[in-house]
Specification:
The structure is a homodimer.
Chain A: H1 6-15, H2 22-31, E1 37-39, H3 40-50, H4 56-68, E2 73-78, E3 81-85, E4 93-96, E5 102-104, E6 116-117, E7 120-132, H5 134-149
Parallel strand pairs in A: 4-7
Antiparallel strand pairs in A: 1-3, 2-3, 4-5, 6-7
Helix pairs in contact in A: 2-4, 3-4
Chain A binds a DNA duplex (25 and 25 nucleotides) through helix 2 and helix 4.
Amino acid sequence: MEKRDYSKIVRELKDKGYTLSMARIAILRYVMKENAHYTAEEIYKNLKEEYPTLSIATVYNTLKLLSKEGYLQQIMIDPNKVIYDSTLGIHPHFYCKVCGKIEDINSDIKIQLNKEINGNRVEEAHIYVYGVCKDCLKKQKSKRESLSLN
Amino acid sequence: MEKRDYSKIVRELKDKGYTLSMARIAILRYVMKENAHYTAEEIYKNLKEEYPTLSIATVYNTLKLLSKEGYLQQIMIDPNKVIYDSTLGIHPHFYCKVCGKIEDINSDIKIQLNKEINGNRVEEAHIYVYGVCKDCLKKQKSKRESLSLN
DNA sequence: GTTTATGCAAAAGTTTTGCAAACTA
DNA sequence: TAGTTTGCAAAACTTTTGCATAAAC
């Protein structure tokens, strides 16, 4: 699991004319971790410990900026909550209905995406797969077994 | 464009022990139209005219019930808004970034869905395609043309 | 020194909840 | 009549906004 090169992103954002404030860099570093899937609230809570002056508005502003500039994708797998993912490109996401965990999927689902569908111009696509994750299946199984023993 | 057979659903819900109230039937009828993609708010506003005593809480309760029982699917293509779709089965949805319109897609995207991915049990999947719809493309085109004439 | 971003607090918007009253079977 | 569901109003949550202050370049 390699570390993401956010210094390149910092350079690019600078070139685009953005001010690289403390808050933005902190959020960028936090969010660029491999396989990270965070809500704005999670990012805020975690960074608030280290940067007590941080405000939730800044978190939302920065996440919007990073999404707009193509460094994050917004995952709308969970109603009423946007989750941010720094792994780019069309890749399916798995959502556990039991524990809410999100996982990137890299295989088994193949998608052919045309630039045009029914006369509409296609720009991006998201695939969301719902079910029960490995860990929750294990828990359910051991629960069933202990019940059948009694 | 055929009309949906909601009387069958009414029968099934009765068999499952649900009370078939006026409100539930009205919402069911409203939502079962072909190619309908409604938010709770839209359903509420439209039915409120005919049934002034209807409350938004009942709309949410009923939509949740119908989703749980498998008669509706929740489309989370738009952040902060759940859209309900009575067309079942895995079918991709197209979302126009310009006008917000949602369209069912029945072709061009093929999906192979396994019952198991990375050890996780798969139960359902959603495919969301984002872009600019036919109508908005047309508007943009005519706008560009009229500008280049001046 | 000028411009841009931040933080705060309030607002906006969607969805949920608790409970008495109304309705369904 | 017993058991559910409804409607209301308030609460809970997420996200956005406006504006004075602070930070970045």
